[in-house]
Amino acid sequence: MTDNLTLYCLVDGEPMKDAFKIRDIPPSHDVDDLKDAIVRKKPNDFRDGDANKLTLCRVSIHDDGTIHDKTELNNPRAVLSTLFAASPDDNTYIIVQRPAPVPAPIPTRISTCLSGHLSDECLHGTPMSATPIPKRYIPYDSLEKELALIIKDASQLHVWHTVDATNVETAQKERLGPFYKNALPYGTTASTMKEAMLGMVLDKESTSSDNKTLREIVESDIGKTTNLSVLLLTNDAQLTPEQFFREQIIGGAVTIGTLVNMLRGFLTPLRATLGNVRATLVVLGTSLSLQGEDNVYPAVGMRTRFHSIMRFPLFDDQDVEHVLSKLIDTSGCTIPHDKLRKLTGRAQFSVSVIRELFKLNHTNPHTKQARLEKAFDSAINLVSIQLRGRVRELLGGDTTGEVVHLLGRMVLAFKLQGGKVWFARKAQVKFMDNALCALRVHSGSVHWLMDESLVVEVVEEELEHSNVDLGFSAQLRQLNGIIEHFGVKSSAKGNALEPLVRQSLRRFNNWHLADLPFLQGIELPAWCSGQKLQIDEINTAHGFGYGADNTEADLNFLINRPSNKLLVQQSGTRQDAAWFFSDNRYAGSLAIKIYGNDIPQTDHQKNETSSDIRCSFLRADGVRMNPSLERIRDAFVASVVPNKIKGILRIHLELPRVQGVQLATHVKRDPATGTEDVMVHIDLSNIDDFFYEGIEEKKEDILYLKKLIKYVLAK
């Protein structure tokens, strides 16, 4: 060969559209000369400029993107004419692999002391984690370019492996048998699997409190010189930082591994000169993410914008079924609901079923259904074992009793309200490291929440088995007894409180409104005179025969206004329950809130608005249209029912209490329409008026229920 070569090159991991040409390179040059030519062609892509650190591979890339005939050019002195006996065709490429980044130590916790803020460790004089992070000097005028390269490097497709795609397909078909559907993300060999990347099949992304993804935050910040952004990736209960990106950026674990190493080595050393950084600062696993966020400023006093990534994807029953059906062939199989429910929550629970299917022998005589159920059972068992060990570790180290008490309250909160009771975060309890609960931003502050069925089950079993908190065991038995006595059924996620409240209200059947304990001392409107509370039946609109189990059935119920039937509504309808009196111009409603702390004013206002039946099918403010329910709202308005309702007994149960104000029951009158609503407010201060002990029916259960609520809400 005498003609100069033109070689197509592609940096490992980049899409085909970013391929570039090295033109007119003499065939007498060697592999080292080719590396030098590549670095000269793309100086910004290879930061240290050391061509000798590159690895080159000759491959053939077919039209479908598959790679064939991969040969590593590992002899630096090999002459190109010996490697290319003929002119390369259009399918021949040189894959350029950068050197693997030197992993920066990733301590379990990093205390990053910034101007204007002191972390827990800084306040107590504890030094930063013992292993220092390697520092690398980046000129100021190169920051924008440097960060762009980091993002580009870390967000590439999981494509360039040495494994042949055909081998992957063959190996996975053998492992999965009848469950094989499409090739799954694979590891370093054809028979291994990248489990951490399986969650990518769902369109669920981890976001900040203002609904921005990592990529949106970082890319929008490149080159900005005004305000500085700080991105906080917490060591969340559900995920470690490395697992965090399984939905966030294509590439899953591969991406985050690269990103963590690069960003730790690049940005962390610059925290001392934050005011000079035209880029997003990423702080991983630091207490900075959980406190004092509004008080952090860079050295020059520039205001810092914080983006706390704390909204992690959670899989419900449908998500678990959906993710499995997209990953494997589940045709002909039915997944039992109780098994689906146990694997709800973090994605690791769901995708562990795939791991267990990989382990099964698919040549045995068991049916496909039996094998799938076996994989579910195995996944549930293994996850339970892991969780059990973490719970025992916590209980074993609990010298004050604080951990066991809080865990017990969380379990009971799950059963009472489906995990929707938020608990104040306490830094000394290592729930986060043990992944037993989630950190969530709620009403402007960070709280704990336990809302995964399998976690609750394991914690409950361990608490009962250990007998370290006899109060919890007693409360649990009482709650189960109350549920049985009242004849209510809790949902798959728990939530026994709302049915219990509805049944408690029913104890006042045949009482005149004026005699109700929670209406004493109130000058009631004329429509209440002689009016009796009577609830003959409690059901959904579907159960009452008003159509399918959906919001439209609620609409039909409200339009018909049947007397003395308590409606358990869909979430879009807004009330927690509603009924019409015998004179159906008048109605009643329930609005229930139970939090771990005092209820913020904004949440109270939404709760109060939700009790107005006239505002059904609207957003939380009772004014704006809910686009998905616009047709139903229009039909409700057209029925003139909102105008026909002249008065509502609106009962608001808000526990422990509304923040900063003592609410009193009163009558709300609208002079324009003439409506008169009785606004009842129940909190811990007057809870006895609603859960009334003066009625003998189920009196003991009412006593236990009040005691249980106070136990859960105890600080």
Automatic annotation (TrEMBL):
Residues 5-97 form the Crinkler effector protein N-terminal domain. Keywords: Secreted. One of its GO terms (cellular component) is host cell. InterPro entries: Crinkler_N. It is found in: Host cell; Secreted. This is Crinkler effector protein N-terminal domain-containing protein. It comes from Linnemannia hyalina.
